[in-house]
Write a structure and sequence with these properties.
By secondary structure, this protein is mainly alpha-helical. The chain folds into three domains: 29-234, Clc chloride channel; 253-452, Orthogonal Bundle (Clc chloride channel), CATH 1.10.3080; 466-537, Alpha-Beta Plaits. Helix content is 65%, strand content 4%. It has helices at 19-31, 33-76, 81-104, 113-121, 128-145, 152-170, 174-193, 196-208, 213-234, 253-282, 290-307, 316-324, 329-347, 356-376, 385-401, 404-415, 421-437, 443-453, 460-465, 526-537, and strands at 467-473, 495-501, 504-506, 519-525. The protein has a four-stranded antiparallel beta sheet, sandwiched between helices. β2 (495-501) and β3 (504-506) form a beta hairpin. α15 (385-401) packs antiparallel against α16. The chain starts with 18 loop residues before the first helix and ends with a helix.
Length: 541
Amino acid sequence: MQKNMFSHKTNKIQNGLSPSKQIRHTYQSLNHWQHFQFKLFWEGIVVGIFSGLVISLFRFLLVKAEEWRVDLYEQLAQLPDTYTAAWFAALLVIGILLYLLTKHEPMAGGSGIPQVKGVILGFMRMNWLRVLWVKLAGGVLGLGAGLSLGREGPSIQLGAVSAQGVSRLLGRTRMEERYLITSGASAGLAAAFNAPLAGVIFSLEELHRNFSAVVLLPAMAAAMTATFISRLLFGRDFIFSFYGLPPFPQDIHMLYAVTTAVLAGLCGVLFNTGLLKISTFYNLPLFKNSWRKIVFSLLCAGILGFTLPQVLGGGNLLVNELALKTFPLHLLFILLIGKFLFTLISYGTGVPGGFFLPMLVLGALVGSICSNVLLAYHLIAANHAANIIIIAMAAFFSASVRAPITGTVLISEMTGSFSHLMILGIASAIAYIVAQLCGGQPIYEALLMKTLHSHNTPDPDIVKEERDIIEVPVSSGSLIENRKVKDIPWPPHTLLVDVKRGPDQLVPEGNTILRAGDFLYILTKTETADEVRALGSDLRK
C-alpha cells in the first residue's frame, strides 16, 4: 500500500513540537475527531477576535490616510508650487521606506493571498509577527500615498498571520495550523468587506479548496466573530452605496445581462494577463533596482493626484459615485484605462497591497460603460443602470479569480441586495466559462506558481523535505474512487493514515475500498503533496 516510510531524522522543530510529537498529536486529533472539531470551532472564535482587532486597526488607519490624502491634494491645488515640490519629495521618502520594508520581509509584499495559499499548501512559510507589522505599515504607507491597491488582500494575509500567531502560541500541529490559517483568512475578508458569508466561501472555494466540516466550522466562527467586531467599531453600513436596487427584469434584460457578463469576463482575462506581464515592463533597464519601481509608481500617483484623483487608492469611493451619478461615456473610458494601467503599475512594484478592490472597481467601470450605452439607446430604464454595474462586478471577479460562488455572494453582501443572487450567479458562471474558453488562469494560483518558480520562498529545499498529514477529499469520478487502497498508485514516501466516511472512522487496510465523499488523511512530503491531492480530484482517463 505504501511505498516508503519516513525517517524521523530532522533538525527542524516548528510550533514548539518536535516532528515525532507533531505526528503523535495529529494521530490523537484523528482518533478523537469530534473533540477535534469542537476544539477548532472555539479556536476559530479566538482567531476571529484577534483577526477582527488587527484588521479593524488596519481599516481605521487606511480611512484616516485616505481622508488625509484627499484633503492634501485639495489644499495643494491652492498653495504655491513649493508645497507641491515638498510633497513629491515626501513621496520619494515614502518610496524608500516601502523599499526597506519589502526588503526586510518579502513575504509581506503584494496581495498576500498567494502567500496564504502557499502556506496552506505547505510550499511556503511565514514569520507571522514580522509579516503582520510590515504588512500593516507598508499597506498604510502605500495606499495612503495613493497607490492603486486594495486593503482586502492584505486583510486576508493579516487574518492568516494572526491565526498563525494563535497557533504558534498554543503549540498546535501543522495540520491544525492550516485549518486555523484558513479561518484567519476567512475572518480577514469578512472584516475588510463587512461580508461574513463571502469570507467563509472565499476561504473554502479559493484557499482551501475543501468544503469539509472541519474546515467550515472554524472558518464560520472566525468570520462571524471578526465581522461582529468590525461592525461594533465601524457600524453596519455596506461597503458600496447601491441602496434600493430594483429587481432585475426576467425578459429581454437577461440578454443585456449576459452580454455584460461576457464583456466583463473578457476584461477580467485581460486584467489577469496584465498582472502577470507587468514584470516585463519592470524588467526594463530603467528599473534595475527595486526602489526605482516603487518611486516611479509613487511619482505617477503624485501626478494623477492632480489630474485624475479618482484612480488613486482602492477605489470604493469611485464605485459609490458610479452608483449615484451619471458619468459621461468618454470620462468612463478614461477612468477605466487609467485605473487599469495604474493598478498594474502599483501592483508590479511588489509593495504590500492587493488588487482585490481595484479589480471590483474595474468591473464597476465596465458595467457603467455598458449601462451608459444601453441607456443611450433606451434599452433599459435609468433605475436599472446600477443592476448592470453590479452584474459586471461579479462577472469581472469570477473571470479573474475563478471563484464564481464567492463573487456572487460577495457582491450581494457588499451592496446589501440578496434579491439579485440568481442574476449575479448566472453572470459569474458565464464569466467563468468565458475565462476558461480564453485559456486564462485563476489569478491567485498563477501568481503563486510565478512566485514559487522565482525561488523567492524561504528555505524552499527544507520546506520540500517536511512531512505532514494532509486532508484529501475523494471526488466522484476521481482516480481512486471505488478502488482498493493497495491498488492505488501512491507516490513515494506516502502513508494513508485515516479515512473519514460520514460520521464513521475507518482504519485503512489494503482491501479497503475508497468511496466518493470519503476524506483521506495522508502522511507525505510537501514535494509530493500536490500529486497526492490530485489522486482525489483528477477524473479517470
